[in-house]
Amino acid sequence: MASAEVLRAGTDFDGTERSPMRNAEARVTLGVTAAREGDLEQALIMGERALQGDRQSVPSLIMTSRELAAEMRRQYSSEPGAQDYLARLHSLAQDKPGFMPR
């Protein structure tokens, strides 16, 4: 199932998320795609939205986000928005050692 479809299926008509973790993972995937296509703004939007909201498993979200973090480091390491995103992800990972590479 495509990431956009996961988001549609996991969100009620009123915007309530039925599947917050699946939706967060779908947003990370969309963020990776945007980053690889050169769209830093969209990548940051998707990455930040993935980190918001109710999550049952922070380690799972951190592991899923590793690919987006790698793209941010590889392509956008000098961009302030990318640095902020990576810092936020790193702060989440501090409580869960071993899930986020340096």
Could you give a short description of this structure?
The protein is mainly alpha-helical and 102 residues long.
Could you please describe the fold and organization of this structure?
The protein has helices at residues 3-9, 20-36, 40-51, 58-76, 80-94. The chain is mainly alpha-helical. Helix 2 (20-36) runs antiparallel to helix 3 and helix 3 runs antiparallel to helix 4. The longest helix has 19 residues, at 58-76. The N and C termini lie far apart (31 Å). The model has no long low-confidence stretch (mean pLDDT 84).
Number of helices, where a helix is a run of at least 4 consecutive DSSP H or I residues: 5
**How many strands, what sense, and barrel or not for the largest sheet?**
none
Provide the β-strand percentage band: under 5%
Low-confidence stretches: none
Q: Tell me the span between the first and last alpha carbons.
A: 31 Å
Q: Tell me, rounded to a whole number, the average pLDDT.
A: 84
Helical content class: 55-70%
Structural class: mainly alpha
Shape: globular
Radius of gyration: 13 Å
**SSE string, helix = H, strand = E?**
HHHHH
The total of beta strands comes to 0
Oligomerization state: single chain
